[in-house]
Amino acid sequence: MWASWCKEHRLKGLSLWSLDEKKQGSWIWKSIFKLRPTAERFLRCHVGNGRTASFWYDQWTPLGILITILGPLGPRALGVPLHSTVADACTSVGWKIRHARSPAAETLQLHLCTVPLPSISTVSDSFVWEVDNVALEGFSTKLIWESIRNRRERQSWTENVWFKGAIPSQAFMMWMTHLDRLPTRARIAIWAVNTLDSCCICNVYLESRDHLFLRCEFSEHLWLLVLHRLGYNPFQFHTWTAFMDWLGLKDNVCPLTLRRLAAQATLYSLLWERNNRLHNSISSPVSITFKKIDRLVRNSIIARKSRKKFSNLMRLWLKYE
Ligand SMILES: [Zn+2]
Q: Which stretches make up the Reverse transcriptase zinc-binding domain (predicted)?
């Protein structure tokens, strides 16, 4: 009853996530608002007909909360008003969204191409609590407290993603990959039933993040070429954690900046190749994808050659050509 009263008198038809904490009068209401960043980590929306799910504030795609991912200019960039429901953003034939002008918007549009349109669904939206990607039967104070309590204060991977001189679009894509938020088929299959979950490149294994970027035959071959150019003997990355550990470890073979630059260009090119196969049915061999990586790395170094950390990198990148 209290919840219904709050919905009617406090929220007045708006999303709980959209209201300004500072403008709330009551102490209890302010305390509830303070818990929103914690709660949003665990609450997921399964879209049915999209009539109750908030397009911008509910977590209804694997990418996360869209207003956080696309920022305050997102509603204008996509042409979807801030208080729209998911149903408001589509018609019976497709999505009513403007062309993507940022990597984040492009990732969203790629994801939307792969899910059924809410307008053709007859079931209502539903909301579930999730801890570590596992949906709970109901709210579990114990599991959520365990998850919050174990939270690490400092993220050791930050420098691998947002290092000085990183290319913003590549760093953003790696950030999404690290959080495992990219719409790989394995992740989509959790949200949408009866969808293909095999790898878009090899068509054999489950398309998880670790498989697509590290373990697929195509990726393994590509990494061997990249590692050779960085001066390393051949080896393979078995997990994302091992890959990130390697990317953060100083050694005498190759500077961290060049390693991170090449790694981000490799992930970016792998995703590009995967999307090109999925959406355009065009496949390139490993050698062509490697040429793209080579070009991306060269261009990045040339554009930053006046920076101290980049001054020596072209020589190192060409050393094992
Ligand atoms: Zn594969």
A: 139-223
